[in-house]
């Protein structure tokens, strides 16, 4: 007798995803079942409240597989929420220790339909899959002791549902994680305010790490004027002598992150900057830069000092007058006596 038992899985879609049943596989399964029926093998299908069971009876074989969802969560159907700031690494922990013959399979997507990595403990073989337009390319690491998955240099496109299946003997253990990757700004439409004193340098940070095929474009003001760009695929880095040369010899690009540094700033550099990172998807950040005039700063500081000194002089003068009046009154009192 061949017995397949699916415990604690309520949705048909989850069952299909768990076994990676494609349309072609389903057709094959249907064909095999039809052959069994035609061959007059005893086939029986029934369901109960807590289980979905399919029993294929045969005089030659007996097999049993148990699929369960348990371990790191108190509720077996729970999804663990994980959050991380874009650009940082995040680890999805299984909180277990792999056994000799374990097989680990990591999947991603609303229905965990896309396999992204797997590990065979017996052969110590770790594989990642270049799927979803290379979204996870060169950014997945797996702990060979626990099966935990680490995603490096996270991006907002990494947000979503992750699942890990641990196949151990006749048991399949499923954990699920809902990952949220927050952008550089809490609001994707927000503008990051940056200020600097005239003559100093300022860096506009992307808080990310460039990938092989990324293209970075820096623009200034409206209408947007391209002032610098990076093409990592062709290894080209360019700055542009535009806007009457106001940025001439003042722009520096970080080839690892795409961040822009403006040296020897002047008040003409104040304004709105935008950086677009073109990868599998486009991500745009904006910065409002304010360059303070150093002369005005000095004038303001000098004015404050003058006000303070004037106030102190007035207090001193008032005190002197009070002392003088007191002295005069004292002498008059002595003369009257």
From TrEMBL:
Record domain Immunoglobulin: where: 79-182, 191-292
Alphabetical list of Gene3D superfamilies matching this protein: Immunoglobulins
InterPro entries to which the protein is assigned, alphabetical: Ig-like_dom_sf (IPR036179), Ig-like_fold (IPR013783), Ig_sub (IPR003599), Ig_V-set (IPR013106)
Pfam families, per database record: V-set
Top-level taxon in the UniProt lineage: Eukaryota
SMART domains for this protein: IG (SM00409)
Name under which the protein is recorded: Immunoglobulin domain-containing protein
Source species: Cyprinus carpio (Common carp)
